[in-house]
Amino acid sequence: MFFSQDCTLCRPHLRCMKPCAKLNCPVRHLRRIIYYLDSAIHTLDICIYFFTFTELAEAIIRAKNRNVVVRIILEDSMTHTDKSQIMNFYKEGIKPVFKSLDVLVHHKFVIIDNNIVMTGSINWTKSAFFGNFENVLVTNESAIVKPFVNEFERILTMLTATTTETNSETLDIH
Amino acid sequence: MFFSQDCTLCRPHLRCMKPCAKLNCPVRHLRRIIYYLDSAIHTLDICIYFFTFTELAEAIIRAKNRNVVVRIILEDSMTHTDKSQIMNFYKEGIKPVFKSLDVLVHHKFVIIDNNIVMTGSINWTKSAFFGNFENVLVTNESAIVKPFVNEFERILTMLTATTTETNSETLDIH
């Protein structure tokens, strides 16, 4: 999936979630990504640098509500913006993992049921989907999926060792 | 290829370009990327948001010097930083294409001989390679490579329509 400057024109199609005739209408791509998220049965592992896009957050919350195990890793410095979806996740019982580091968690990938990977250059923000030149690659090839599965576990282990308590304190979540 | 926080420790290995025993030593990954760049025979198509990494620029210049056709698309707003490799490319006769837009050229991919794609989350900067959590996927699967080839041509056509003259004037290159 490719996104580019001409996607800006398709922003109105988001209101009704109906793509236009253009093959690269970003609403078409968005619907495809949501389709994959909605297809999750067991697990949804998400590692995204910057996540503000409501429609994608809603698909993740739907997954949680049908008992899919949802795990989210975010970049700490991007969780402090007004548009971050972090509070919506917390309200729905999903606790994203993030940690203040002197480096960036710059990934933009999602793993569905340990079977499909979506990865690329795109952060999950409306402006990235509707205007930027971006790409998303979707594959179920195990030679690609498996390393992402392992890396997600590795990062999660690395960040959760001391993260959970800090986050809960900072966000005053009970 | 995955990069993460522990890669920071491997920064000294860059001096001699020798990786340590760690499987994810970033110098090991860097050498692999340079190996692919050095293997280019016909074309090297590069579309990178932020490009400051000297060792990678040198590999591209080597390709140019062995008569590989090198085409580079960069994000305009990132070419004004001190560390941008743009002037080094110009000095060597490579003219990157960039254009001031109200959206970002956020891709991070390279196509070698229309046959191999390297794509992922990583910008070509030293800090991204030595510390950030990042990924690079390398594939020669034509179902993946071909769309990237088409998209590169599409972006290049879109940007070059009015770009070349503007760039030359702005940079005062003769």
TrEMBL record, chains A, B:
GO cellular component, one term: mitochondrion
Keywords: Hydrolase, Lipid degradation, Lipid metabolism
Pfam assignment, any one: PLDc_2
A GO MF term: RNA endonuclease activity producing 5'-phosphomonoesters, hydrolytic mechanism
The UniProt record lists the keyword Lipid metabolism: yes
Cross-referenced SMART domains: PLDc
Domain PLD phosphodiesterase intervals: 101-128
Domain of life according to the entry: Eukaryota
The protein, known as: Mitochondrial cardiolipin hydrolase
Organism phylogeny: Eukaryota, Metazoa, Ecdysozoa, Arthropoda, Hexapoda
